[in-house]
Amino acid sequence: MDKPGPVGVYLDGVTSTKRQVELRAGLALEIIENGDVIAKWPWDSIRKADGAGKDLRLLSDEAGLARLTVSDPEFARTIASYAPKLFAGARERTSTLRIVVWSIAAAVSLLFVGLYGVPYAADRLAPILPLSVDSKIGVMVDNQVKTIFGNKTCDDPAGKQAYDHLVSRLVAATDMKVPLQAAVLNSSVKNAIALPGGRVYFFRGLLDVAKSPDEVAGVMAHELGHVHHRDSLRKLLQAGGSSFLLGLLFGDVTGAGAVIFATRTLLDRAYTRKAEHRADGFAIEAMKRLGRSAVPMGELLVRITGKQGEKSSSILASHPFSEDRLERMKREAPQTPGPELLTPAQWQALKGICRNAGPPKPLRRKEGSGKP
After folding, report:
1. So what's the architecture of 3-86 in CATH?
2. In whole angstroms, how large is the CA radius of gyration of the chain?
3. pTM of the predicted protein model
């Protein structure tokens, strides 16, 4: 070693000045300018830097942004013989490329899991999770839902008594295992909604257009079907995946963001056809046990479909209805009708359940959005 080398081009990493230097291979690579050694790069710190052309461009782990360009092929081979990590950078770049490729593959796998695995898991997890999970989510979104739809429940005493009587008859005709909390919200929206934890809301707008107790009872029975089958929890799991569930269980996402996510999922995301078919079946059976038909519910929803120009503000936003569902209700209607679910006086009281609540509240829409 200790033999002088050719001239190289040195950038000190501080200024942009290209400095002509002499190079010498000693115990370290010495960089000499005007006879003075201005830098020494230990051999095991030298690596090949990215660069174009045939010249060898070097950097040192101990020299920051400094760069050295060597044009002489023979001296470049000398450096290669002394610098054990010269090409480590290239190997690292290969490793980086490998990491990128595997990351892309992992992302594709996660996408596949999101499209197929999460819905599959959610469909099987929802029925076996503790009811406390439903209750926790229900409490979380309840206030948000009330705020969106006017934050006022209707509580005229006679109307509430009639409503509770109707709900209790429906519950008695089913095998409901989830504790139920049912109320009427003073909102002009033609809607009904089931929240996790057994919370069911009927909206004044839907009650106003209902023409009979059977229409109201059918819709309520349908919502009880969603509660019974825990469809709201299933919908949340399918939309948010396992991370949302784990966050709810361990308290990581119980802030405002989670509340908004959960509420918007329940309001904006439609139930699956399977869930709707199942809830229809639940309603049909409940009404049949009472000697009543679910057909009036179907007729109510078809009537709303004809009049409602904007689906986002009706029950059809999350309960898309079709003629074949109505035909199913007609096929399975009881041959012999049972007694009326409410007396005429009770029906009139139910229709007036919101008389003390003032005018119905319009839907509070998100700015710039057509959806609640």
Report:
1. Roll (2.30)
2. 36
3. 0.61
pLDDT, one tens digit for every residue, the chain (372 residues): 455 567 889 988 878 788 999 999 889 999 999 889 999 999 999 988 876 568 888 999 888 888 999 988 888 888 888 998 888 755 444 444 454 444 444 444 444 334 444 455 556 665 666 677 777 777 777 878 888 887 789 999 999 999 999 999 999 999 887 888 999 999 988 889 998 888 999 999 999 999 999 999 999 999 999 998 888 877 777 766 555 555 555 554 444 555 666 677 677 677 888 888 999 999 999 999 999 999 999 899 888 876 444 444 445 555 556 678 888 999 998 888 899 999 999 999 999 999 988 887 665 544 333 333
> Domains of the chain: which residue ranges?
3-86, 92-125, 129-351
> What's the gap between Cα 172 and its chain centre?
35
Other beta carbons within 10 Å of 305: 16
* Nearest CA among 22, 27, 28 for reference residue 8: 22
Burial of 214 (0-12, 13-18, 19+ CB in 10 A): buried
